[in-house]
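User: Sequence recovery, please. Input:
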């Protein structure tokens, strides 16, 4: 006990250093081709996911009051630490040809603040002649965008919350001044909201699970001592789980955030089973010492294998190559096993120090309602076996039909409610600007200065126009758009000259791309962010809608086909990368990893069951009642239109690891009681249903109630994890108390004699 207290104190000290992860999700391994391509892009052109966008919808933008307020917001945002630069309407520049040198110079279109509508209208007229900004800063004269580029290091640190809060504060100031709503979106904004909500929910779920467990234990045992003891067990488990994360160098992510509440939910059944056996034996013998010996002797091996099975259900995630799943699997697997050792070391000594149980503490063993239910279940198992088979088969058939309706689809903002402000703002940008999710297309000409050739420029422009025609995309940006802007300026600013260069423009264009055409701080910087230093590789930046993992591959395949028709693969290499592509690859990678994890879980749990019972018949009997609930849950998902995505696939492996506990406890009790009834299978089954059934129902209720907590999450995926796992546990409890006895009775050998 002293060693346990000291080690828990050390883990508590480590747990105090736990940190929230602010880095992008590490869903794909570093040797994955999509990851390698994305890192190569970032090295050459920088990050693509550090832009936060603000949007305003109003037909009155070009009135002095609103325009000046919009410009003031731009200036205030520039002063925020962590903001690198801002692209917005008030700071738009026009390229003007210098009559003396023939070069280009950049001049601001607007000279705010404005006091005269006439002056603003004059500047507006100039701005409307610049096609470069259409679809970039404004759309349809009613929607206006401000793009704020953020420091990468700030975005990937805890300062991100402060940075985003400062930007939101300035947006709120604009709203108060103009009474116009400001829409905010972008990956930094989404990830910050995501991380902050995770932290908040983890605290609430942990408190909620502890509170619910305390209430449940008090209702069951009517003992404050038993309740406090059980809460100390799961409390130590939570401390160890957080300490383990720190020792392994992990941070809190969406997945690891649910480990502490899961530890509480899984740890309480350990306490209930120990206490139930202790109370049952004490009521039979009235001997406290004998009750403790029987509790450890009977329940020690059962709890060990139950925790092993539960740990396997989680630990198999560490077999995947996704860092996100590995961390979840390692931490949860280790600490579920620690729960067993904590329970075994802590509960028996504490009970030995506590007074003997009083009559009110064991009154729950005589619950009339549960006794009637168990008698009914016994009746069904022994007299309505055919009906149990028929109902099970019918349910499985309906579920299989539902499984055929399952879809594999996920979205970047998949975990948010449809009425969430982050979700609705994203849809506003998709509707008005075509999308904000980054897709980067890299065109490699395989030759130095290959981008200077007119055929290459025309090919990139043609391909960009094809992309722009798709409703799922915003207007593509490349160095070609910068050339068009420069050509327009070179020919006097006429918007009809916003076009690609011709052979007559070649001398000027060559000087421009070499950085000798003036306007070097604006034009050349813009062009350099879209081409490499050798003028060999060009970048086409496209913002797309959050179309989901089902449509995104089709969209990229369509772009790839168009690219192959436009660019000869012998002379060009076209690569698709960016945050959207890595998200798609990561989502698919996680789902495939979870599928393989379920197979590993089945295999390892089956081996444990075979080792424990040394019987192929018992193994078959144990697996069927646990496969059926998973099939039914998958069928319900199909009928309910719930897609297969990382958060929902997680249900099956988690539920299998927990639901198999019921099977192990039932079968171990059955095997222990079998010799006492002279190997009479029917009598032993009746005894097992009556005695083990009470603790099984109690623990199942605790588990179900524990997972129901997740249904109050703001995240759709966490909510689905809660109610789908609860559904699986409900079905698993009934199949283990009805179908399992029927299968044992059917597959049992004839009465065995010694």
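Assistant: Recovered sequence (754 residues):
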């Amino acid at each position: 006990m002293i060693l346990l207290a000291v080690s828990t104190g050390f883990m508590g000290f480590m747990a105090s250093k736990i940190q929230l992860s602010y880095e992008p999700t590490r869903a794909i391994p570093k040797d994955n081709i999509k990851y390698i391509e994305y890192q190569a892009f970032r090295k050459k052109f920088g990050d693509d996911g550090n832009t936060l966008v603000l949007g305003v919808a109003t037909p009155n933008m070009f009135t002095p009051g609103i325009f000046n307020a919009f410009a003031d917001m731009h200036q205030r945002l520039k002063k925020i630490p962590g903001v690198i630069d801002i692209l917005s309407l008030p700071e738009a520049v026009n390229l003007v040809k210098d009559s003396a040198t023939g070069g280009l110079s950049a001049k601001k279109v607007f000279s705010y603040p404005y006091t005269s509508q006439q002056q603003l209208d004059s500047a507006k007229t100039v701005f409307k002649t610049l096609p470069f900004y259409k679809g970039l800063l404004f759309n349809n004269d009613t929607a206006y965008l401000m793009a704020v580029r953020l420091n990468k290091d700030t975005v990937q640190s805890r300062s991100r919350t402060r940075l985003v809060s400062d930007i939101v504060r300035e947006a709120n100031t604009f709203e108060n001044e103009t009474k116009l709503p400001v829409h905010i979106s972008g990956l930094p904004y989404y990830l910050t909201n995501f991380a902050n909500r995770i932290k908040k929910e983890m605290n609430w779920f942990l408190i909620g699970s502890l509170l619910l467990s305390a209430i449940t234990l008090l209702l069951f045992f009517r003992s404050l001592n038993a309740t406090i003891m059980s809460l100390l067990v799961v409390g130590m488990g939570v401390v160890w789980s957080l300490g383990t994360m720190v020792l392994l160098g992990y941070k809190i992510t969406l997945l690891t955030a649910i480990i502490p509440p899961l530890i509480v939910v899984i740890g309480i059944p350990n306490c209930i089973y120990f206490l139930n056996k202790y109370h049952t034996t004490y009521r039979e013998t009235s001997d406290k010492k004998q009750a403790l010996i029987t509790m450890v002797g009977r329940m020690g091996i059962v709890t060990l294998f139950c925790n092993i099975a539960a740990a396997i259900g989680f630990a198999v995630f560490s077999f995947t190559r996704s860092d996100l799943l590995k961390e979840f699997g390692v931490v949860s697997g280790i600490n579920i096993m620690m729960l067993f050792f904590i329970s075994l070391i802590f509960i028996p000594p504490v009970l030995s120090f506590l007074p003997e149980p009083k009559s009110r503490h064991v009154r729950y063993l005589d619950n009339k309602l549960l006794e009637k239910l168990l008698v009914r279940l016994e009746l069904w198992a022994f007299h309505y076996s055919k009906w149990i088979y028929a109902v099970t088969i019918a349910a499985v058939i309906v579920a299989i039909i539902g499984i055929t309706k399952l879809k594999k689809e996920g979205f970047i903002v998949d975990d948010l409610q449809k009425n969430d402000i982050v979700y609705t703002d994203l849809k506003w940008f998709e509707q008005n600007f075509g999308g904000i999710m980054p897709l980067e297309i890299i065109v490699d000409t395989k030759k130095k200065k290959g981008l200077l050739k007119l055929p290459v420029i025309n090919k990139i422009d043609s391909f960009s126009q094809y992309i722009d025609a798709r409703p799922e995309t915003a207007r593509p940006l490349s160095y070609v758009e910068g050339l068009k802007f420069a050509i327009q300026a070179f020919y006097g600013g006429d918007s009809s000259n916003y076009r690609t260069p011709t052979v007559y423009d070649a001398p000027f264009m060559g000087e421009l791309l070499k950085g000798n055409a003036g306007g070097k701080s604006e034009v050349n910087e813009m062009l350099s962010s879209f081409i490499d230093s050798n003028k060999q590789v060009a970048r086409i930046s496209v913002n797309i809608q959050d179309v989901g993992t089902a449509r995104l591959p089709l969209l990229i395949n369509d772009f790839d086909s168009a690219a192959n028709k436009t660019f000869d693969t012998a002379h060009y290499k076209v690569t698709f990368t960016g945050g959207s592509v890595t998200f798609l690859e990561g989502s698919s990678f996680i789902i495939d990893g979870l599928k393989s994890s379920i197979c590993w879980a089945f295999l390892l749990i089956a081996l444990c069951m075979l080792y424990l019972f040394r019987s192929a018949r018992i193994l078959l009997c144990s697996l069927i009642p646990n496969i059926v609930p998973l099939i039914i849950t998958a069928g319900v998902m199909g009928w309910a239109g719930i897609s297969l995505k990382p958060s929902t696939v997680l249900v099956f492996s988690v539920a299998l690891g927990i639901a198999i506990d019921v099977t192990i406890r039932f079968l171990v009790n059955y095997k222990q009681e079998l010799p006492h009834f002279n190997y009479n299978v029917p009598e032993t089954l009746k005894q097992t249903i009556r005695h083990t059934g009470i603790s099984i129902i109690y623990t199942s209720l605790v588990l179900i109630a524990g997972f129901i907590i997740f249904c109050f999450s703001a995240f759709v995926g966490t909510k689905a994890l809660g109610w789908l796992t609860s559904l699986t546990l409900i079905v698993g409890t009934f199949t283990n108390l009805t179908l399992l006895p029927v299968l044992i009775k059917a597959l049992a050998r004839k009465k065995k004699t010694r």
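The chain is about 65% helix and 10% strand.
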